[in-house]
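Note to self: keep these together.
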Amino acid sequence: MPTPEKGEKKSDYISRCISHLVKKEGKKQDQAIAQCNSMWDQHQKNKNKKKSEAGNMIQNVLNEQFWYMDPNTLQNFMTRIHNIDFKEESFNPELIGIFDIDDNDDEKKKSFKMENGLAIIEVHGSLIKKANGFLAWLFGVTGMAKIGETFNKAVLDPDVKGIFLDVDSPGGSSDGTSDLADIIFEARGKKPVLAFADGQATSAAAWISSSADFVAVANEMTRLGSIGVYGVHLDIADMAKEIGIRPTVFSAGKFKAIGNQFEHLSGADKKYIQSQFDYLHGLFIQAIVKNTGISENKLNKNLKEAQIFMGSQGIAVGLAHKIMNRQQAMALLSDVADGKTSFEKHKTKMESIKFQGGENNMDTELKIKELETKLEAAQTLITEMTASNQTTELNKEIAGLKAEKESFKIKLAETETATEALKAEIETMKTTLSGDLVFVTAGKAYIDNMKADIKKTSVQVDGESYNEILVTKQLEAFGNDVELLSQFKTSLEARRSKMIKTGDITPDPAKGTESKEKTEQQEYELGTKLIPKHMRIVR
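Structure:
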């Protein structure tokens, strides 16, 4: 049964549909009319639903005032939201139909990946409270409510022995963060949960990750921290005045209109708004205290001021427990789930970390100073007790304190040696990354050629309805994901082949016959050969 085409009028579709059902499927006239009208109504309903979901998601993002996210990342995210066009002529429900899978289609299918009894749940991209399906993928966001729902299913699933949170996120909206973090925290003791920070786990993602039993960091380049709140107030009062607009704001209740964009903020207004940010910041810090078990007065002062920490720095301030690769983290989680070991045995002690630009063994140095103070006090006491022949025990205590002090000095020297080794390792990693640049360049050329083929095929298939802007935006959404680009290209070429067979278009002489074209598998294998294994995007 034919489906409505893009831009097709209802009368044209009904006529085409009835003709198909009567002539090719042998339907009676009245049956064909009923079925075609039903198909049209369902098509319109689905299209309106997708546009409504998109509009609601955009509105929720634009309405959010408080963000647990890095300012620069938030600016890029908001720019992307503003640039997405959902006008009637640009909205392509057929494309959404390819990727937007209804999670309720198969109740028996698990909503998370499984590997050796471990549930793998992704916490990727910018986080907002509600987002799912193709639209979430298009915006580059992940819905925290959906993550929480998936997490709860994994906790209750008897096939799951442990939960692996795959985290690579700059944070997101304040609304929804604490809800998801609480869900994860409450699972402690039920099933082991490991958060694997690969790339970044900052701001809201740091809060969520710290709720797990154990936080592993992929490497020294991984970003952690940014424990703060961010938001921007736009004041367009002067701009409105310049263009001759004089808005009048009405309100009841002295706080109701504070923060509207048509009036300048007074000093009292700023204090009121700042108090809300301070309150949310306090909640954030208390959550870190609860999740890490570190009292607020012992939390690193720069951590509480939203500093970002790299790799081992994050371990030194209590936001992570150990640096390990993904395979090692999965193995640790599996062993803990099987009762072979515990997370506590694998946690790196905060005071053992030394790094440049950070806290440089604060605890060790403080202990040395404390011992020096005790030595001075003991020496003063010796002077006072000399006459009473009670110096023997004190001399032993002094000797012990001196030995302990020397022990800490040796420990400090060892950590400095470890720092030099770490520097050498980082230099080696930089050399490896520069070597990968050759493969990246080759991969980019392959991807650019694939995108050019997609545009060319789209022109053939869509004809006069070809929309250059929409195709460009679709390709931007795919990014450099070779697998998705190959699938999309194959889909277009299948449509072109079908249209050639039906005579709707003629073959492209420059492209040759269909039999000479590369298969989807051949193109995919070629793409993966051009890109190093550790840099491929896996979906």
